[in-house]
What we know:
The complex is a heterodimer of chains A (118) and B (112).
Chain A: E1 5-7, E2 10-13, E3 19-24, E4 31-38, E5 42-50, E6 53-56, E7 65-71, E8 74-79, E9 88-95, E10 108-109, E11 113-117
Parallel strand pairs in A: 2-11
Antiparallel strand pairs in A: 1-3, 3-8, 4-5, 4-9, 5-6, 7-8, 9-10, 9-11
Chain B: E1 5-7, E2 10-14, E3 19-24, E4 31-37, E5 43-50, E6 55-58, E7 61-66, E8 71-76, E9 85-93, E10 99-102, E11 106-111
Parallel strand pairs in B: 2-11
Antiparallel strand pairs in B: 1-3, 3-8, 4-5, 4-9, 6-7, 7-8, 9-10, 9-11
Amino acid sequence: DAGVIQSPRHEVTEMGQEVTLRCKPISGHNSLFWYRQTMMRGLELLIYFNNNVPIDDSGMPEDRFSAKMPNASFSTLKIQPSEPRDSAVYFCASSVGGTRLVSSYEQYFGPGTRLTVT
Amino acid sequence: SQQGEEDPQALSIQEGENATMNCSYKTSINNLQWYRQNSGRGLVHLILIRSNEREKHSGRLRVTLDTSKKSSSLLITASRAADTASYFCATFRGTGFQKLVFGTGTRLLVSP
């Protein structure tokens, strides 16, 4: 299995531009997570999908962030407009066995997208 | 704030030595997990210990859990340069939806 696939691996953009991060979870996994990692705040859960449905988005920083999961094999995280404080590494993770009440135990992480907003 | 706080923040040892990392948490848990993150990579699940377990082994890894002290430790025996990474503990927390919350991590450097 190829594991969780994320693209792009690196993204450099100017403030105000739209940024779209992409994720392909492991086939057969029914849960998908978007995380953001920074030195200051560590690893934060942004949003959790279960069976393609957003279950918890309380970690999404503000309305500039949006995430979609149109099918079981693809998800996007969009930032519009981007700001320098959005610079971070964004991880997508997937797992099997999660429910609407609890994310599953073992999560498989992608390699991350390093976003730099200048 | 982070549910899990690891200490030390950084640890530097020689190959062959043992490395011990600690994690403290604040609320009751059903289980606790440890993950590893190599530089520039995503996290990798290492081991899960349930609240009714006191110790668990996996290869060179040994995890202990003390629910009375709300703490866990990860021991890596006979460390190798390839063990150089950051190590995070993670627990579930939240009312309603339970999400996995990661600690601040311990950066381990194993020198040849």
